[in-house]
Amino acid sequence: EAGVAQSPRYKIIEKRQSVAFWCNPISGHATLYWYQQILGQGPKLLIQFQNNGVVDDSQLPKDRFSAERLKGVDSTLKIQPAKLEDSAVYLCASSLVAGGHNEQFFGPGTRLTVL
Amino acid sequence: AQSVSQHNHHVILSEAASLELGCNYSYGGTVNLFWYVQYPGQHLQLLLKYFSGDPLVKGIKGFEAEFIKSKFSFNLRKPSVQWSDTAEYFCALSGGGNKLTFGTGTQLKVEL
Fold it and tell me: Which of B43, B90, B98 sits opposite A31 (nearest CB)?
């Protein structure tokens, strides 16, 4: 079974530039998550999709971050414009269905450095 | 609101030593608890999970964790660590829906 795919793996940009990350979840997984992991901290949920609908985006900085999952499969996360504090690893995860007991499967992450 | 605390940020052990990593949580309702592990250069993967029933859960690679409701704890244990257990360990809580709240993680280094 193929895992969660993410690209790019690394990205370096200057502040005020824009950047986009892509995620392809495990086939058949209806729920998709984006997390931000700042160095020295645990992952923090940014947004959760159920199919192509947003379930929870309460911690997404909506003035600069956006995400979409148009066809209910792969997803993109965008930052525009980037700030220094956005330097982090952005993790994508998926689960078969929503529900607190369902295992989330994580991708390798995209390491973003904002200079 | 839900939160997770991991008190040990860095742990260094010799091979064959016993391991216990602390995890405490804060949430007023029914909880689902997880331990995830991230080996060097690899992605986060599930080590074990607790939903209900027997509070002592066993996971992969000889790890186990005990849910103690009265102490709001879910500590991870392994009787004898190996060099290959060197990794970062995250405790996580799901208190409702599917939202995972992670602790800050514990870096474990096992020396030969």
Answer: B98
Residue whose C-alpha is closest to residue B62's, from B38, B40, B80, B87: B80
Contact A78, A13 (CB under 8 A): no
| In contact, B76 and B59? CB cutoff 8 Å | no
**Domain B3-111, architecture per CATH:** Sandwich (2.60)
Would you place residue A70 in the very low, low, confident or very high pLDDT band (cuts 50, 70, 90)? confident
Beta-sheet pairing, A105-106 with B73-78: unpaired
Q: Where are the domains of chain B?
A: 3-111
* Domains of chain A and any CATH numbers: 1-9+29-96 (2.60.40.10)
Q: Tell me: the pLDDT tens digits for A53-64?
A: 999 999 999 999
Among chain B residues, CA nearest to A41: B104
Q: Which residues is B9 bridged to in the sheet?
A: none
CA of B107 to nearest chain A CA: how many angstroms apart?
10
CA dist., res. B14 & res. B12, Å (int): 7
pLDDT single digits (tens) A13-65 = 999 999 999 999 999 999 999 999 999 899 999 999 999 899 999 999 999 99
Candidates B32, B44, B93, partner chain A, best to mutate (most A CBs within 10 A) = B44
For chain A, strand residue ranges (E) read: 5-7, 10-13, 19-24, 31-37, 44-50, 53-56, 65-68, 75-79, 88-95, 105-106, 110-114
